[in-house]
Amino acid sequence: MTTATRRALGLSVAVVGAVLAILGLWLCVTLGPSGGATFGSRLTQTGALTIEPKVLNALDVPTEVTVMRKDGGPLWVGLAGASDAAAVLRDARWTTVKGVSWPAGSMTSARTGSTAMPDVTTADVWRVSQQVRGSASVVVAQGQGPETLVVAAPGGAPLPDMDVTVAWHHKTWFFLSLLLLLVGALLAAGAGFFLWQDLTAAPAPQAGATSRSSRHLHRPNLLPRRPRRGDTTSGAASAETDDTAVITTDRPDPSAPEEVDA
Fold first, then answer.
1. Which end of the chain is more exposed for a tag (fewer CB within 10 A), N or C?
2. What is the pTM of this model?
């Protein structure tokens, strides 16, 4: 593996780890230790209010619904099968919660019907029902869906502005987010340490390359060795034992007699 490929791989792992760590941290903060996802909205002039099965039975955990009248008046809440609730409401005017938007935490709703709301409290289709003042909270367990939650005023009177909240809680979601945070942090830290070690490591010497000092140390001595005082070895022996090269020149020997032309 080349250096460029190794560094590109390390950088990719570091980026992926950082993204996972940021996502895990955001989920931990958003869900909280209880692992809760909450969606809320204010609905104006609802007449009556229904929450569809695709919201109530969206997850395999209990759905917590809280509704509150702004004027603090009486409030009736009933839970029944989706087909039974539709048969009671018929063509009455009401507002239905159709879905939720995550991570925005908002809800989508639509108005339907054209006739006046009947007194739905007298029907015998409701599996759970309660009448309170101001606000009501209902926990819808899963396993009997599809179900529809109906919120109305007693006697068929129209409802004013309503605050509606739908929430799900599951502690496992928080632990999964925490695990995602830890895995991402470990990946980012490990890849970052690897890149730092790779960038700060000294480059390996190339094959066949020698330093200037090495060439100087291995340079042969081409000058003849001068005899030192006290040497007892003969010149012949020195010539046999000394492996240095002897440089010869064409200069005449000054002690030799000069040749005179006749």
1. C
2. 0.62
